[in-house]
Amino acid sequence: MINILVKLKYLAEENPRGFTVYVPSLEPVKKGWVVASIETQNSFGDEGLEKVLKYAIPTTRIVGFWDNEGTFYWDAVMVFDNEEEATEAGIANEQIAIYNIENNELKML
Question: Domain tally for the chain?
Fold first, then answer.
């Protein structure tokens, strides 16, 4: 897990606006609606990233990193093909928004 953690931190430096990748391959997710898991909400820094990886590796297998006005978040995320399903999951996970990767679209909930 330490190797993945180091690679994700490097990826965050190279992509400060954010990204969504599969773990452990770190291949980018290229389409779909992204919804953060409530279990890893408000995860910051190295400690937050470790928490996210411990949750994501056996469950969603997807990690997201994003910048919200200078605060950098790590999340275990789910990706949905369907906006309606993503909206339902976003509400169930108490999220304020979901994100469409292909369209670079943020949908407030």
Answer: 1
- Number of CB atoms found within 10 A of residue 82's CB: 11
pTM for the structure as a whole = 0.92
| Cα separation values, 37 from 10, 17, 97, Å | 23, 20, 12
Q: What is the pLDDT of residues 52-72, one digit of tens each?
A: 999 999 999 999 999 888 889
Domain that holds residue 103: 2-108
Q: Say how far apart CA 85 and CA 83 lie, in whole Å.
A: 6
Residues 87-106 have pLDDT tens digits of: 999 999 999 999 999 999 99
Spatial distance between the Cα atoms of 18 and 70, rounded to a whole number of angstroms = 12
Cα end-to-end span (Å), the chain: 33
Give the count of alpha carbons within 13 A of 86, CB side only. Answer: 23
- State the amino acid at position 30 in one-letter form: K
- Report the share of the chain in percent with pLDDT over 90: 92
Tokens matching residue 52 = 């996210």
